[in-house]
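Human: Respectfully, please carefully check these tokens:
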Amino acid sequence: MNPGTQKKPNNFSNNSNSSPSGSYPAAQRYTPEQIAYIQRRMYVQEMEKAIPPKSSSILGTIVIRPKGTTFGTQNPGEKVFVLVRRHWIANVGWIFRSTLYLFIPFIVAALLPLLVDIINITNNPVPSRIWIIIIVSYYSVVLTLTIRNFVEWFYDLLIVTNQRILDYEFSPFTGYNIKEAALENIEDIKEVSKDFWGGIFRYGDIEATTASSEGKLNFDQVPHVTLVRDILSDLANIAKKYKKNGD
């Protein structure tokens, strides 16, 4: 050996044998720990490739690669890839009702003179402070229902991580219910378009059949439903491939 030439150290093995190509160490020179490490790196890399670039919809109905998102049952090393809320059209009903409730007192006030004779309050008028209490109480109920509906929509989540999918069903008054399944346990993912508006606004339902105790997970009114279905399918296939290889 030329004294001025140093042999490049081998980080994977102390064995001096080399592969036929001379580029990489032979496979038999890796320890089981090193093979497991390489497989984990490949697993992470494939997962990252399956996720589109970071993006978010205007109303936050779907967020890809959300920054700083955590949840209560998150495992060490678990990374959130996709965060999904129901499509904004799910809010149209309660927004319309809440708006209507705002105008009901004005409608009643406009009709009240016509009903004076029927309800017979001309000789016994209701004190103004009672009217104030009634109106404040009414609008408090309307505000409470509006906040409740918004919170239910905002915290009703489909979370996709590098380990599993989670379905959060939240209610401000009754708590929350969580269903989950490991990615490798997902057997089939089906996209269901229920109505005409779903085709126009690109939302639909996703049914995930799993081998876990949950059986089947249903996600309603998912925005960009085809994109979400493809992401789930790709991640499940990657997880099952590495699970089969013993990772």
In short: Residues 1-27 have pLDDT under 50 and may be disordered. The domain at 27-86+156-244 is CATH 2.30.29 (PH-domain like).
